[in-house]
Amino acid sequence: MNVVIGELNVRPLVDGDKYTLSRWLSDPVVLEFYEGRDRPFTPEMVEEKFFSDRGVMSCLVEYEGIEIGYLQYYQLDHETMIRYGYTNLDEVIYGTDQFIGETDYWNKGVGTQLIRAVVEYLLQKEGVHRLVMDPMTWNTRAIRCYEKCGYSKARILREHELHEGVYHDSWLMEFIPE
């Protein structure tokens, strides 16, 4: 993915990005919402999780030329579709996960710009029927952002994500193109 819209640039990860990711993923303020404060990352952990071949497109997000966040997207496999409650396994569903690692860019609309750009990009891929995300139910800032971008809450995924030693419920949120 190489998307440039205004001041926003989303590009594939390169090797040197592991140091930026490990800086963000060792910041307790960021970890409160992504991965958990009990799991700070080293560059080696970042390399293992974000640079291994796992069927995920991993991207760095830049805003006004500054590295500010991370985004990944992937096509849901049949097992995940069934777990999420989808019965039409011919449907093409993509999931995304993202975070803004530079906290100075929180609450400034950059996340909304990012989500809208990614939605536009992924919907241009032939055959995509819907996009999904699964924020934890207590992450109200992220949920508001996703709703502003046209996502809606579909259903609760019970005890879906292990975060700081506790399994938390998540919202399955969908964007269904008209």
Question: How do you describe this structure in short?
Answer:
It comes from Rossellomorea vietnamensis. This is Acetyltransferase. With 178 residues, the chain is α+β, with helices and mostly antiparallel strands.
Structure description:
With 178 residues, this protein is α+β, with helices and mostly antiparallel strands. The protein has a single domain, classed as 3-Layer(aba) Sandwich (Aminopeptidase). The protein has helices at residues 17-24, 28-31, 43-50, 78-83, 110-123, 140-148; strands spanning 3-5, 8-12, 57-63, 66-75, 93-100, 130-133, 152-163, 166-175. It has an eight-stranded mixed sheet with strand order 1-2-3-4-5-6-8-7, with helices on both faces. Helix 1 packs across helix 3 (43-50). It comes from Rossellomorea vietnamensis. This is Acetyltransferase.
